[in-house]
Amino acid sequence: MKEATAGLPGHDAVVGLTRGIEVASLVTAGALLLANVAHAFAEGLLLHWWAPLVVVTAGLAADLMSGLVHWTADTWFSETMPVLGRRFLRPFRVHHVNPDDFLKRDFIDCNGDVAMLNIPFLTIALMLPDVGVGGAVALALVTFSLVSLPTNQVHQWAHMPSPPAIVSWLQRHGAILSIEAHASHHHAPYVANYCIATGWCNRWLTAIDFFPACERLITRVAGLQPRSDEQSFAERW
Length: 237
Ligand SMILES: [Zn+2]
Ligand SMILES: [Zn+2]
Known about the structure:
Layout lengths: L15 H27 L8 H25 L8 H14 L9 H21 L5 H16 L2 H7 L7 H8 L6 H5 L18 H6 L2 H13 L5 H8 L2
Bound molecules: zinc ion (2 copies).
The site of one zinc ion has 6 residues, from α2 and α3.
């Protein structure tokens, strides 16, 4: 089933088994996150001298990961490739051609995939020993998941003309991706501000020319042209 608006491409409706898996992923990730947070407080992981360093580093890593995943999906591979193309790459192509379509995706559709990807991190965090390096790695994994779990929700809020008041406050104060920061991504050739969790890494990555440098390297080594699939998709609409 495909939802489209006035000649523009739309997202595939998530139904049946896929939707069931997304609901299960959200419930599992939510339960694991609660268990991990309770465990971190019970074991006093935040009381160690290294805790602030671990929390800040893991939070930044989550934003960087959101940028790397977004850049990879926007820049490389084809939306017609088997298995991954239709399910994971096409939404990125549709999103650039028809960004308003994203607002039609409900909470489960918006957040289920990211929840699924975080389940291994949260499971490992619960299994690690609380002493020494184990405690630091557990705190890092929980912080990473805490920041990355709402990535796509934060992204959707950045597209809302009038997000909820608390969300708007967080956006204006730089706690999460702002509407303005993300709007600058939505101009062809769509190469600015890939990070969509908190957006904290965007300025630094732009300053060091990070993604263009990665693209030049990949083109030189593998001979691939960035955004070739995106251009051919956009020309069809
Ligand atoms: Zn994009
Ligand atoms: Zn967007």
